[in-house]
TrEMBL record:
Molecular function in Gene Ontology: calcium ion binding; hydrolase activity, hydrolyzing O-glycosyl compounds; phosphoric diester hydrolase activity; polysaccharide binding
Residue ranges constituting the CBM2 domain according to the UniProt record: 896-1012
Cited PROSITE patterns: CBM2 (PS51173), GP_PDE (PS51704)
Domain GP-PDE: 4-234
Gene Ontology biological process terms in this record: carbohydrate metabolic process; lipid metabolic process
Pfam families named among the record's database cross-references: CBM_2, GDPD, HemolysinCabind
Annotated Gene3D superfamilies: 2.60.40.290, Galactose-binding domain-like (2.60.120.260), Phosphatidylinositol (PI) phosphodiesterase (3.20.20.190), Serralysin-like metalloprotease, C-terminal (2.150.10.10)
PANTHER family associated with the record: GLYCEROPHOSPHODIESTER PHOSPHODIESTERASE, GLYCEROPHOSPHORYL DIESTER PHOSPHODIESTERASE
Protein name: GP-PDE domain-containing protein
Length: 1012
């Protein structure tokens, strides 16, 4: 955790400096400190203002007449106290004395007046810091004024040119330093902290990223003009999602990760989810649902219901009469003045009471409930059988539940009984909130508060390339995030809004919404205003290419719109676009803010297509840059994919050599820009051992070049080849989860070609599970152990493994491998019993024993009902069947008859050099459907004797008649409709007579036709 404290510098943008709105919003948005610059009027009133000007010579009445919004420090302290009670958070206060010397010249003693006010307001604790550039006034406060008045406020020295050597002397009277950001260094920070001082830095006015330098130095806090920007960034690097509710109230959902939610004003329902969450109800009557995790729930002001979970929660009802449901690991905190709280606790619940001594309480009955009453009229009411295990008082006394019950006498009064009845009804009404599903807002940066990566302007931020966090401009030109007020339009949510007029460009602001469930229903909402009523701009909102809304706001006042959209609707891209058209492109147009998309209904059964590939049709345009032909990523990274080589990745929306998108609007060019692309994705959600259908479409945008594509999965080649031309061709292969190197990394790598910017086109990549992992069954036939319990312990164990239809999915196995491991022992030897084929015993990267067919010379094909018998010999532990695991049975399955319908064979010319020959064979699928596998038999003429010396594109064996049988490899087993593949071989022959083969000698065959 960074523990970086955020100080609202004069409040926060976009509100006027030191206005009540500026300070209130800074605290609402998560500032830890309020900061007030103070001046003194001619008649001795301390006021909050940055510039001294004529204030020391102006009466308070005259100052207010000139500036009615000016606050007194007295009122500012009241504001902080009120916000602290409303928000349920302790708020620190920094008070800077501006120009004490100038005031003293007018006979005004600011320091003395300040101390008097702090004492009068009982605002004298350590959460107050007094600062100034004036060393003398700070030393006077430290040495004389504060001790004499019993004030324990900290002293903060503002300055520029601090040195490491001077820190010990400063620490004699200063508690902290506030340093200009241009002058702070890591050695200065380290020296100050080593001397016992904290270090604060002023002033952060830009992006969240600009805070990182200060965080890396280890500073304790930062003064910021952009509280919401700073809060979001600090929380983000701490692993928290920062979310804000609506001042009008409503439901705000967290995520499955850790969240911090600020409910703001209004009656809210806050849902925390699975992470370690912080839920702030703030103002209004709120319901806080912590969920699982170790959560902090703060109700704030109002009648709140805090529903804790099973974790180690901290529950703070705050001001007002509340309901608190605490788990067995929870801590409940209650302070004097917090009202009447109805509590449901458990034996492990700990209650901590602030400002309350054990001797001041009363304990009464209320039916079966137990009432612990306090002097101010507040109470903790524990339901029947729901008393906390222990209560810890401010005077150090601890009472157990039994001790508390023993103190009870008499009945609580009718007024308290009526309050408790209302709280019980409130609790019952709130309980269904526990069952509400999480429905977080899926829009990234929907209120345009994240300004990272953008450039500064006096009116806000902009990006000349049309990219801001979460959004891109699909057209050319810049995007703008305004923090000012234009024609009466300022942000409706947060500090920023987006101008869709850009700078002489209509903006098509787009985001591919991630996390959308196919078929689920969502509520899309947004707010629009018009900053230029002289023009007739029109806004078109599309989702997945479908028009959701088209129109224009009536004027400069914000108008809110809400529509239902369906996940995956339209072109399936889930891309949301706000496109302005019309108008004069004069720099002022339609304003957009507060975009949100929340799930309202689950998808119907079967809506999910099961595709594990993220962005398989390349429709996700997030974080990409504009080109007139589409989008691109210069660093080679697009959503879901990265180029393992060097150079950029392109998402085309145009037509090249007749090639346009096969699915949706975009396709990717594997030629990139003078670079062969190696497009890779680590596929998530893969089940080890399960079977998947990997499919994709290819086309060639440059037929003059001879590009080739190699597709690997887990480091193994699963397909290699090239499309025939510009028409899209579909390909599909079978892959196994966790196969190869176990990475589940899918790579499409182009090779060859002239790197002229046009190459192979890829689209519509999908990977869908077709079969669960093989059931791992084996039967122990016999086992023998020796030297039990010694270092020489070992065993022999024989097993049988009987194949079923599940293993073979209706086909036969032409090759196979089995991996085994044994707990606590090493398998040193393994062999097959009564199996005709040569069997290899190897070890994989995990050290497991692997039995497999040996090369291409196997002699038996396995079918359902066949049994593999094998024996293991191992050392290091006694044998137990329960400790032996069949890790996988990798059966290379060939479908039965019918797989070759529509397939044709073209035998190339035989090249014969007397003692040997070379032959290539083309297989062409002229059928309407693709095939998943193939086997080809070569009928040898009588007397023809061949010895295969090499083979490519296939494996080879002999059948019972001595004919050669060629079987597909993994990468070319699937042949799409209209597709083709090749295999070939070299062989030697003894008689020296030339040999040639006719196409008729080659024929497709299924395992069912083979008798081996």
């Amino acid at each position: 955790m960074t523990a970086l404290e955020i100080i609202g510098h004069r409040g926060t943008n976009p509100y006027p400096d030191h206005s009540a709105d500026a300070h209130a919003h800074a605290l609402d948005w998560g500032a830890d400190w309020a900061e007030f610059d103070i001046q003194m009027t001619a008649d001795g009133v301390l006021v909050v203002a940055h510039d001294t000007g004529s204030i020391p010579t102006t009466s308070y009445a005259a100052l207010v007449a000139a500036n009615p919004a000016v606050m007194t420090l007295d009122a500012a302290i009241d504001l902080v106290r009120a916000k602290s009670a409303e928000l349920g958070r302790e708020i620190k206060v920094s008070i800077e004395l501006k120009n004490p010397v100038a005031h003293a010249a007018r006979g005004l003693d600011m320091a003395d007046a300040l101390v008097d006010l702090l004492v009068a307001k009982d605002f004298t604790g350590e959460d107050v810091s007094l600062s100034s550039f004036d060393r003398a006034v700070l030393q006077r406060l430290h040495s004389d004024l504060l001790p004499a008045a019993g004030v324990t406020a900290a002293i903060d020295y503002l300055g520029y040119g601090f040195t490491t050597a001077g820190m010990p002397a400063l620490a004699e009277w200063a508690d902290s330093l506030s340093i200009n950001s241009a002058y702070v260094t890591a050695p200065i920070v380290a020296a100050a902290q080593a001397a016992g001082m904290k270090v604060y830095v002023w002033t952060h006015a830009g992006t969240g990223e600009e805070l990182q330098r200060l965080i890396d130095m280890g500073v304790d806090g930062v003064y910021t003009d952009n509280t919401r920007v700073a809060r979001d960034y600090v929380d983000r690097i701490d692993g928290l999602n920062t979310l804000y509710g609506d001042t009008a109230g409503g439901t705000t959902s967290g995520t499955a990760a850790a969240d911090v939610i600020y409910g703001l004003q209004g009656n809210d329902i806050l849902l925390g989810g699975a992470g370690n969450d912080v839920l702030n109800g703030d103002g209004g009557d709120d319901i806080l649902v912590g969920g699982s995790g170790d959560n902090l729930l703060r109700g704030g002001a109002g009648r709140d219901v805090l529903l804790g979970g099973s974790g180690a929660d901290t529950l703070v009802g705050g001001r007002g009469d509340d309901v608190v449901v605490a788990g067995d690991k929870a801590i409940l905190r209650y302070a004097a003045g917090d009202g009447v709280d109805l509590v449901s606790a458990m034996a492990g619940t700990r209650v901590e009471l602030d400002g309350i001594a054990a001797g001041s309480i009363t304990v009464r009955h209320l039916g079966g409930a137990l009432v612990v009453g306090f002097a101010d009229g507040g109470a903790l009411v524990f339901g029947a059988g729901k008393i906390a295990g222990s209560l810890h008082f401010a005077d150090g006394v601890t009472l157990t539940a039994a001790q508390l019950s023993a103190l009870a006498s008499g009945e609580a009064d009718a007024a308290l009984a009526a309050t408790v009845q209302q709280l019980r009804a409130l609790r019952d009404a709130a309980e269904p909130a526990r069952d509400l599903p999480l429905a977080p807002d899926l829009i990234v940066n929907g209120s345009f508060e994240n300004i990272d990566g953008t450039l500064v302007r006096d009116w806000g931020r902009y990006d000349p390339d049309g990219i801001m966090p979460g959004w891109v401009n699909l057209a050319s030109g810049r995007v703008e995030q305004h923090q000012d007020t234009v024609a009466g339009v300022s942000a409706v949510d947060g500090a920023y809004w987006a101008d869709l007029d850009g700078n002489l460009n209509h903006v098509q602001l787009a985001q591919t919404v991630e996390g959308v469930e196919r078929g689920a229903t969502y509520r899309l909402s947004f707010a629009v205003a018009d900053t230029d009523l002289k023009d007739a701009e029109v806004l078109t909102v599309t989702y997945g290419g479908l028009v959701v809304w088209q129109g224009a706001p009536k004027g400069a006042a914000w108008e809110s719109f809400s529509f239902a959209v369906t996940g995956g609707a339209g072109d399936g891209s889930d891309t949301l676009v706000f496109a302005q058209s019309g108008g004069k492109l004069n720099g002022a147009g339609l304003a957009l803010d507060k975009v949100a998309m929340v799930k309202t209904a689950e998808a119907p059964a079967g809506a999910d297509d099961g595709n594990l590939i993220f962005n398989g049709s390349f429709e996700n345009i997030n974080a990409t840059e504009y080109r007139d032909w589409g989008r691109y990523a210069p660093d080679g990274v697009i959503r879901g994919w990265e180029n393992l080589g060097t150079g950029r990745v392109e998402q085309h929306r145009d037509t090249v050599a007749g090639v346009s998108a096969a699915d949706g609007q975009y396709w990717t060019d594997l030629d990139g820009w003078q670079n062969n692309v190696q497009l890779a994705q680590d596929v998530a959600g893969v089940v080890a051992g399960a079977t998947y259908r990997l499919s994709f479409q290819l086309a060639d945008t440059d037929l003059k070049d001879a590009e080739s594509l190699t597709v690997t999965y887990g480091g193994q080649v699963v397909w290699q080849g090239a499309p025939k031309g510009a028409a899209w061709e579909s390909f599909a292969v079978s892959v196994t989860g966790g196969a190869g190197d176990g990475s589940d990394r899918l790579v499409f790598a182009q090779t060859g070609g002239s790197l002229n910017g046009a190459g192979l086109a890829l689209d519509n990549v999908a990977m869908v599970k077709t079969a669960d992992p093989y059931e791992q069954r084996f039967d122990l036939v016999s086992a023998q152990s020796w030297n039990s319990g010694t270092v020489d312990a070992g065993f022999n164990a024989s097993f049988s493994y009987t194949l079923t239809e599940q293993d073979l999915t209706g086909g036969s196995a032409r090759s196979w491998s089995i991996a085994l491991e044994h707990d606590g022992a090493s398998i040193t030897t393994a062999w097959m019993n009564g199996f005709a084929a040569p069997v290899a015993f190897t070890r994989d990267s995990a050290g497991r024993a692997v039995l497999t067919t040996d090369g291409m010379n196997y002699a038996k094909t396995l079918a359902a009902g066949d049994t593999l018998s094998f024996t293991l010999q191992g050392k290091g532990a006694d044998f137990a069947q329960s400790g032996t695991h069949l890790v996988f049975a990798d059966l290379d399955v060939v479908p039965d008859a019918g797989n070759a319908q529509g397939m044709g064979i073209e035998a190339g010319a035989t090249s014969d050099w007397g003692s040997g020959l070379s032959q290539q064979v083309s297989l062409v699928n002229a059928g309407a459907q693709g095939i998943d596998d193939w086997m080809v038999r070569l009928d040898l003429a009588e007397g023809t004797e061949l010895t295969i010396t090499s083979v490519w594109g296939a494996s080879v064996s002999r059948d019972a008649e001595g004919d050669l049988v060629f079987a597909a490899l993994d990468y070319n087993a699937s042949v799409a409709a209209g597709g083709s593949t090749v295999f070939g071989f070299t062989a030697s022959h003894a008689n020296g007579a030339p040999v040639s083969f006719a196409a008729s000698q080659f024929g497709f065959v299924s395992q069912a036709d083979l008798v081996l």
